[in-house]
Write a structure and sequence with these properties.
The complex is a heterodimer.
Chain A: H1 4-27, H2 29-49, H3 59-89, H4 92-97, H5 102-133, H6 141-165, H7 168-185, H8 197-205, H9 207-221, H10 226-246
Chain B: H1 19-26, E1 33-44, E2 47-58, E3 62-66, H2 73-80, E4 88-93, H3 102-105, E5 109-112, H4 124-132, H5 141-147, H6 163-175, E6 181-185, H7 193-208, E7 212-216, H8 220-226, E8 229-234, E9 237-242, H9 244-250, E10 253-258, H10 265-269, E11 274-281, E12 284-289, H11 292-306, E13 311-317, H12 320-328
Parallel strand pairs in B: 3-7, 3-8, 5-6, 6-7
Antiparallel strand pairs in B: 1-2, 1-4, 8-9, 10-12, 10-13, 11-12
Helix pairs in contact in B: 4-5
Classes of the chains: A mainly alpha, B alpha/beta.
Chain lengths: ~250, ~325
């Protein structure tokens, strides 16, 4: 037998599983609420009242990167972690691992679904910012895209890290707590470097802060923010490495 | 009833079989073996989960693995499925080593887990449709829904199905890829008697199509009805391996009854024809004997003198349940 049919069927399996992952994401109402609706509502609300730190001439230059990070975080960290942890407790990961789909394709399908949902979120947020608030990028869209990919991989890795180690209920609590914590202290609602004293230093090292800072400097200032990109990448590498070593399938 | 394709692999269930006995009994030709396990070992911290097990599973047979909880059944199945690595020994499944060649085995096997393993919010059709994309030679979801009687529930979410319906979906999911080897971990738990009989028919139908089936069960009736051979394992060791009817015949005779739970078993042991007395569970007494007729006579005399009603009095060959109890010291349902 040639290896061709094996590759073809593995591709079919991956596509089918990716569709299932997206369907399951959309089927959880609370997940759709937190991933799709919260960032949009916050963008529109803060955009309309024009709230932003005073060195941003246009509030949308601050707000859009914030909400892009929030969207990635809610899909990659919160949504993926909770879904995966419950699937582990239901034995679904073990069961699918016994099919020809295999563990590698199962994780790949999850990452694919996160990427596709994230692309949809980015399209909605950028659309609202452009049409509703006259947002125009100053810097490289390609570089911003690369940072978005790194950020998505980072938060997906951190989500799988939580889901692969903690019990489902604990994952639920931990993922939501981290979400709120990063929203407040991780440079999303307010820049981490404007937080008081020591909190600022810690805040700037958080992945969401590095992610948001990188996007703001690229999109609003046309810079190439090396340090935030390095911090974000280190979080991503650490998260994925630890997740791949500690992930339990049941 | 069980077929008789495996007389060569009998082990006397009188007490614990030695490893040599087991090895001799399992040394048959490889040509007909779907699975061959030799001196398999797996240790978890502090526990020998599987402690030197050897046996073959013949092509096309239904092989039942019985043992108390924690005996090593699930670990053994997981090693065969390629889910778990072994510590020592050799394993051959359909010509492949599940540890180094799991991708060769997965398209050839079907797995039904003890506890679901199915997304709660997915419908039977969606699940089978998904799985049909994973196998090179998959059956149609509609055809399987019909086969297991879930056509009317095809778009009901898994968590809203009854326990029996959930098990039937898990069975359909296990056979969608036209497997050569089927792993069924407690296939009829949570089923009512009627659903259980329907499922037995489905399993026997798979055997008729030449599928080799390994199942674990808590129901002795299930093992007796379905299995060509039964292996009893405990503490990671193989205690007996034989056809169900032979297991019972070799086990000698018993007299059993139910009565008050405060009968002193020493009193029963003093009956002349009684060899040994087991209290299966509170108020259930099983007496081993060479001469069941003489024992019945003595027992009824004894009971009459004490005014004890011998409820459900039964004499004859050991049931599979008795064999299990004697070999493991446990009730099967513990």
């Amino acid at each position: 037998m040639s290896s061709q049919p094996v590759i073809a069927s593995s591709m079919t399996a991956l596509i089918a599983q990716t569709k299932m992952e997206i369907r399951l994401t959309m089927r959880r109402f609370e997940a759709v609420l937190i991933t799709m609706i919260v960032p949009v509502v916050l963008l529109v609300f803060f955009g309309l009242i024009g709230l932003a730190p005073d060195d941003y001439a246009r509030p949308i230059d601050f707000l859009l990167p914030s909400m892009l990070v929030l969207a990635v975080m809610s899909t990659g960290l919160v949504g993926l972690a909770i879904r995966t942890a419950y699937e582990r407790s239901y034995g679904v990961l073990k069961r699918l691992g016994s099919t020809p789909l295999g563990r590698g394709n199962l994780l790949m399908a999850k990452i694919n679904s996160v990427i596709l949902v994230t692309i949809a979120q980015i399209a909605v947020l950028v659309g609202i910012a452009t049409l509703g608030f006259g947002w125009r990028p100053e810097g490289s869209l390609l570089l911003a895209g690369i940072v978005l990919v790194i950020g998505t991989a980072t938060f997906a890795g951190l989500g799988l890290l939580l889901a692969g180690v903690l019990r489902a209920e604990t994952t639920l609590a931990a993922a939501n707590s981290i979400y709120i914590f990063l929203l407040l202290f991780g440079g999303i609602i307010w820049p981490a470097d404007r937080l008081p004293g020591g909190i600022a230093i810690v805040g700037e090292l958080l992945p969401s802060s590095a992610f948001a800072t990188a996007l703001r400097e690229i999109l609003a200032d046309g810079d190439t923010p090396v340090i935030p990109i390095v911090i974000l990448s280190l979080w991503g590498i650490a998260g994925i490495l630890i997740a791949s070593r500690t992930f339990r399938w049941e | 009833m069980a077929s008789t394709n495996s007389a060569a692999q009998s082990i006397k269930p009188n007490g614990i079989a030695s490893q040599d006995q087991i090895r001799a009994a399992t040394a048959v030709s490889t040509a007909s073996a779907a699975v061959r396990i030799t001196d398999l070992r797996k240790t978890y911290p502090g526990v020998n989960a599987v402690d030197g097990i050897s046996f073959d599973i013949n092509q096309g047979e239904i092989f039942a693995l019985l043992g108390p909880n924690g005996a090593g059944k699930t670990t053994t199945l997981e090693i065969l499925e390629g889910y778990r690595d072994r510590d020592a020994g050799s394993v051959n499944v359909l010509g492949f080593d599940p540890q180094s060649e799991p991708d060769r085995i997965k398209p050839l096997i079907g797995v039904m887990l003890q506890n679901g393993g199915i997304y709660p919010t997915v419908t039977p059709f969606e699940l089978l449709d998904l799985l049909s994309n994973f196998y090179p030679d998959a059956r149609k979801p509609e055809e399987l829904l019909e086969l297991v009687g879930l056509t009317d529930s095809a778009s009901t979410r898994y968590r809203e199905l009854s326990g029996g319906q959930q098990r039937r979906l898990a069975l359909a999911a296990a056979i969608i890829g036209n497997p050569k080897l089927l792993f069924l971990d407690e296939p009829t738990s949570a089923m009512d008697p009627q659903a259980r009989r329907v499922t037995w028919d489905l399993i026997e139908d798979q055997r008729r199509q030449g599928v080799t089936i390994i199942l674990t069960t808590h129901f002795m009736e299930e093992a007796e009805r379905l299995a060509d051979r039964v292996a009893i394992i405990d503490h990671g060791k193989l205690l007996a391996l034989e056809e169900p009817s032979a297991l019972r015949r070799n086990g000698g005779s018993t007299v059993r009854f139910s009565g008050p739970d405060d009968i002193d078993s020493a009193e029963l042991e003093q009956l002349t024809s009684a060899a040994a007395v087991l209290v299966a569970q509170s108020g259930q007494y099983v007496i081993d004997t060479e001469d069941p007729i003489a024992l019945l006579d003595e027992l009824t005399t004894w009971a009459r003198a004490r005014g004890i009603l011998l409820d459900d009095l039964r004499a004859g060959h050991e049931t599979l349940e008795d064999v299990f109890l004697r070999l493991t010291g446990h009730q099967i349902r513990e």
